[in-house]
Every structure is written in C-alpha cells, then in structure tokens.
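Document type: protein sequence-to-structure record

Subject area: structural biology

Format: plain text, a pair of labelled lines:
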Amino acid sequence: MPINKLAITLISLLVGINSFSQNNNLQQKWFQYGLSGCRETDSYIDQFQKLVLQFSSDDSVKIWTSNFWQEDEAKYQTFTFDGSELTIEQRMHEVIEITADTLILRSSANDPSCEKYLFISEDKMYTDQLRYYTIFENDTIYFPNKYNFPTIEEGKSYRNYLTTKSSIMVTKNRARIKSPCNFKFKFIISSDGQVIRPSGSVDCLKKDQKFISQTIENSTGQWTPMYIKGKAVSTLIDFKFKHSGVQTFRRN
C-alpha cells in the first residue's frame, strides 16, 4: 500500500477511534457544576439551574433539574453528536471538552443565556464527595451536595423540608415576628436514617429551641440516608438561610 494511502487509512482509523471514545464518554449521566458568561450573575443562575443530562445509545437524552422537577418527571429529547457539536432538539452547542469525567459546552450564538455549561460525570461527583469527610464517634460523616443528599417524605430534600417547616412557622407567628428570620439547623443523618446531635437557632423567635427540637427530632425515622456509589453513609446537615417573611416555595 502506498505511503500516502497508508497515512490516510491510519488517520481515518484514529479519527474513528477518537469519535467512538467520545461517544462512549458522552453516554452517561452528567451533572452541571458550573456556568460562565451568563446574562445573570453566576451565583443566581447556579442557584436555580441544576441541570442533569443522561445520554443513551439510542440517541435520546433524559433531562431534568434537581430543584424544579425530579428524575421521574424527566423530559426525553433526541440529540446528535459528531465529536465537535452536540445538538439537542435543534439547539446546537459546541463541545469544548469531553473526557470520561468532564463535559464543557459552549452555547450557540442564538442561545445567549450563558456562554459555557460545565458538567461532571456521576462517578466524579461521587469520587469528589468521598474526598471530604469528618469523623464523629468513630463514624465517617460525609457532606451533601446539590445533587446527592439525604431525603425525607418520598424524596424531599432537607432544604425543602426545613424551609417548608420554617415558612409555616413564620406564617403562624407573623403578628409577633417583626423582622426577617435567620434560621440555622445542624444535625447528622446516620447511615440507617437516624437523627443525631440536632441543634440550631431562629433569631426572631424567643422559644426557638422548642421549634428546632420539634422540627428535627420529630423527623427521626423518616429519613432515607445519602448513598455514595451504592453505599448508605452518614451525612452532616449544616443549613442556614434567611426567611424574609414572604412565603416561598422550593421544589426540593
């Protein structure tokens, strides 16, 4: 075989291998961990957009966001991917980087909401979670992130549970509460779903410890622990937020 034909064959083979590898990398679950170049501030966008993409070999992608609708309410759309461009339902994105653990997309010119979308793989998310922990009474305690956390009441997150309980309390005591309330909750959800060492405060409520006790201790036995790579683990919940006195709604 002439050298030039051999070179072309080798290049074609390498391109094919690279394309196959990229397609294999894409076909998994991706979690959004960052945005850049957004019209709103990054912190605002990140608070409300927690996008999850799961690509399949049948050219379908399962899409949901962890704060507005759950996985069982996911939308299914079609996609095409040629190694450099990813098109989901006619919305084109340039693929800046794709590896086994990282996916970075650049928005097309007709989608100016954010310039770049950054994702990490499910395996990397869990691996990163395993890196950070503390020890309490010989138990390893991990920390939740915005995608993986203990749940209560059929999948509700601790954020939703605590903000809902706090909002109800503020509404009931509106006549006596004259300023925004700063809430602090801290407790451990053990690997078997028990509540350990509950504490907290509410700066606008005189009998705040009664509310803290009722809110946290009364939830004992209702929690599903956090799982990392299929194993139930103990988790430290350390949640602070301000309630302005206006009823708010959080999906999870």
